[in-house]
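ok so I'm stuck.
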Amino acid sequence: MKLLSSPASPFGRKVRMTIAIKGLSDRVEAVAVDTGKGDPALNAANPLGRIPALILENGDTIHDSHVICEYLDTLGSGPILIPRSGPERWRTLTLGSLGDGLIEQALLQVYEGRYRPENMRVDSWVARLQAKIDRSLDYLEGAPPAWHDHPDYGHLTVAAALGYMDFRHAGRWRTGHPGLVAWLDRFSAAVPAFNATTPGA
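replied:
not stuck anymore, here's the structure
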């Protein structure tokens, strides 16, 4: 299989963590693509031109990081990351959705600075994005998501979001969130793939 992604992508990072946890590293080749230049291979795999995209051995493609992670969770020998049914499944997917939302708001802030001329930026829009991030961080600070035997897909997604805000937002989220900082330290100790997938590692 081939994973089309970028080392800097938080969505790609959670997929790469999943690959490592499930013991699939020898079955998936990571291929770096540049979304800013309209990579033909990526556009063929995902018409939206978004990463990550997974090309299977038979040529079929799967895209959207959640779908890729759920597919990979059916393979390999590692622990189950997304419960198959029951309340734990919905808890895991809901936490994953919150993590994805954090990533999306943080990405939109980066794009605002990268692609919109400074004299056309809308401060109220950036503030609205930040308010969503702040509410989510405060929610997680109030009850950092615990795990039993091992972190699951929801935890991976939140960790990828916090890692992205360390990478692109200078770690400003850490101020005022000591419980969440400690949570990420515990996560990184429990999941070696987190540090191994740090952009630039």
